């Protein structure tokens, strides 16, 4: 690659992303630096392929021989990003809209386990496949069946298979799918931007193997992916932020990828593609597993993030900060959310207890949340049913009630009985529960406050509320601490448990006097 000089006296942060591309980031700079680099590239033999402005953002693509340079300037954050890529296929990209006319569809494919598999039918009957899910044969079978049911052609045609990032629950389904159906589908192109399989400097978890699979590490499966793709003969494109791909009648703009995070994150989720798609008169925002805070989506794009349909990032599990995620949702303000997680994961075990997903579940602008337990297809443009909002809020209430309650009170206890201090705690969620324990006595001056305990996710345990597994003095100033006051002898008492998430508290001989409800 040509060496591009530092202009304007601004030293960039820079890194090699993979064996074909590098990125430079200039912080706290004026938009004039964007223009200066454009002029430099034109003077040194690069041809301007594309220069455009969208609100406070500017994008440019330059080519010289097989080399590409892509520039993004974000006025909101005063940042210029420059990506240099060898053998860039972007400049030769083409796609022709076919003559068949069918209704565009989005299908959230049902999966054996959480993961991500979406099929987008274009109006010419071809498909986009986004990810695909885990390497389970039933998932591969469902994906193929979906393509066959929706195609107007003799053989399903995949206009583009898009892989968001190299995690097993997103791209490994490609292998059993190809082993079974490679000769029964036509794949025209692939879009993905992965790190190198051995780039353990940036992404040490590429070497990590899953607990349930023989080997789902990126070191093994990224090379395997390239081998399979080569057998198809399909074109391969590495999407970079700012690029646009017109696939049939789907207009896809890349809002984030590894370009934006390689300098400051080792999280493989942070390499995820974020795609703004216009199709069927609506805007769909595919966030895959991206972290809004790491890619700084709210700061960079502002209200340009607005979309009709949102695929909820990282299955609603949260990646990055909850504050940035919520800020993003308030800019996107989707009417419909696609949540690639089963009902129990969404409303009972996990998502509802994460601040971002909970915000969406309560937001008045969200009319429908579509989870992944049952396969659903949306005809575009899509309008939720009149009762859709109440249905997803009812699912949320019922899911919370399935967990237990945040508040539990037991009375008629006595300090003379050692067993009255021992309780059973069930945390049926995937997240740890942080529990505050208070003891109340007839003499309020003996009350004990701010005893703390933590119970891990999916855990059932016996807990002595005055034993070694609790914090007896968990705040800086607590005159009512267990450590300060101790336990009075032969005294009647009541105990209150308050948890940050729903739990179940029981006792061998005492029934709870009260427990709260999670209904909201």
Task: For the record, give the distance between the C-alpha atoms at the N and C termini, rounded to a whole number.
Answer: 58 Å
What's the shape?
A: globular
Mean pLDDT comes to: 95
Helix content: 10-25%
Strand content: 25-35%
Query: Low-confidence parts, pLDDT < 50 over ≥5 residues?
Result: none
Structural classification: alpha+beta
How can the largest sheet be summarized?
8 strands, mixed
Which helices and strands, and how do they pair?
Blueprint: E1 13-18, E2 21-27, H1 32-43, E3 47-54, E4 57-64, E5 67-74, E6 79-85, E7 105-108, E8 117-121, E9 127-131, H2 137-150, E10 157-162, H3 168-171, H4 174-181, E11 186-187, E12 189-191, H5 218-232, E13 235-237, E14 244-247, E15 250-256, E16 274-279, E17 282-286, H6 292-295, H7 297-301, E18 309-311, H8 322-332, E19 336-339, H9 343-349, H10 355-362, E20 368-371, E21 376-379, H11 388-403, E22 405-414, E23 422-427, E24 433-441, E25 448-455, E26 459-464, H12 482-485, E27 492-506, E28 514-515
Helix pairs in contact: 2-4, 8-10, 9-11
How would you characterize this protein structure?
The protein is of the alpha+beta class and 520 residues long. It is built from 12 helices and 28 strands. The strands form 4 sheets. Strands 7, 8, 9, 10, 11, 12, 13 and 21 form an 8-stranded mixed sheet that branches. Strands 14-15-16-17-18-19-20 form a 7-stranded mixed sheet. A hairpin with a 5-residue loop joins strand 8 and strand 9. The longest helix is centred in the C-terminal third of the chain and has 16 residues. It is globular and about 90 Å long. The model has no long low-confidence stretch (mean pLDDT 95).
């Amino acid at each position: 690659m040509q060496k591009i000089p530092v202009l304007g006296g601004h030293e960039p942060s820079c890194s090699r992303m993979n064996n074909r591309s590098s990125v430079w980031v200039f912080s706290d700079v004026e938009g004039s630096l964007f223009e200066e680099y454009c002029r430099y590239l034109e003077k040194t033999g690069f041809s301007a392929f594309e220069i455009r402005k969208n609100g406070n953002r500017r994008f440019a693509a330059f080519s010289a021989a097989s080399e590409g340079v892509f520039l993004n300037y974000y006025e909101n954050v005063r940042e210029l990003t420059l990506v240099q890529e060898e053998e860039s296929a972007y400049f030769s990209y083409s796609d022709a809209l076919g003559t068949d006319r069918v209704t565009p569809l989005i299908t959230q494919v049902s999966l054996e386990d959480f993961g991500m598999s979406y099929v987008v039918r274009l109006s010419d009957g071809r498909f986009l496949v986004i990810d695909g899910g885990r390497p389970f044969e039933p998932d591969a079978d469902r994906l193929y069946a979906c393509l066959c049911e929706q195609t107007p052609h003799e053989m399903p045609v995949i206009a583009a298979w898009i892989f968001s990032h190299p995690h097993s629950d997103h791209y490994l389904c490609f292998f059993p799918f190809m082993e079974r159906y490679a000769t029964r589908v036509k794949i025209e192109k692939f879009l993905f931007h992965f790190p190198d399989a051995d780039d353990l400097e940036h992404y040490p978890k590429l070497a990590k193997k899953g607990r349930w699979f023989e080997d789902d590490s990126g070191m093994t499966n990224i090379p395997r992916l390239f081998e399979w793709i080569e057998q198809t003969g399909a074109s391969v494109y590495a999407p970079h932020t700012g690029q646009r791909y017109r696939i049939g009648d789907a207009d896809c703009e890349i809002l984030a990828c590894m370009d934006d995070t390689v300098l400051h994150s080792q999280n493989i989720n942070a390499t995820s593609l974020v795609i703004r798609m216009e199709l069927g008169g609506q805007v769909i925002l595919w966030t895959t597993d991206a972290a809004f805070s790491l890619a700084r989506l709210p700061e960079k794009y502002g209200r340009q993030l607005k979309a009709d349909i949102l695929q909820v990032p990282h299955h609603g599990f949260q990646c990055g900060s909850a504050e940035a995620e919520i800020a993003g949702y308030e800019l996107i303000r989707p009417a419909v959310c696609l949540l690639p997680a089963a009902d129990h994961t969404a409303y009972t075990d996990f998502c509802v207890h994460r601040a971002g997903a909970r915000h969406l579940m309560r937001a008045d602008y969200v009319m429908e949340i579509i989870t992944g337990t049952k396969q659903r297809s949306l005809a575009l443009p899509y309008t939720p049913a009149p009762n859709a909002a109440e249905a997803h809020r009812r699912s949320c209430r019922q899911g919370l009630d399935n967990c237990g309650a945040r508040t539990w009170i037991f009375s008629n206890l006595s300090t003379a009985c050692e067993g009255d201090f021992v309780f059973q705690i069930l945390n049926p969620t995937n997240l740890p529960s942080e529990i505050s324990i208070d003891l109340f006595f007839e003499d309020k001056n003996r009350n004990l406050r701010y005893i703390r305990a933590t119970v891990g996710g999916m855990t059932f345990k016996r807990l002595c509320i005055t034993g070694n597994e609790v914090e007896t003095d968990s705040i800086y100033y607590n005159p009512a601490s267990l450590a300060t006051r101790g336990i009075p002898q032969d005294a009647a008492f009541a105990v209150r448990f308050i948890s940050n998430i729903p739990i179940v508290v029981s006792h061998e001989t005492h029934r709870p006097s009260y427990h709260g409800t999670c209904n909201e």
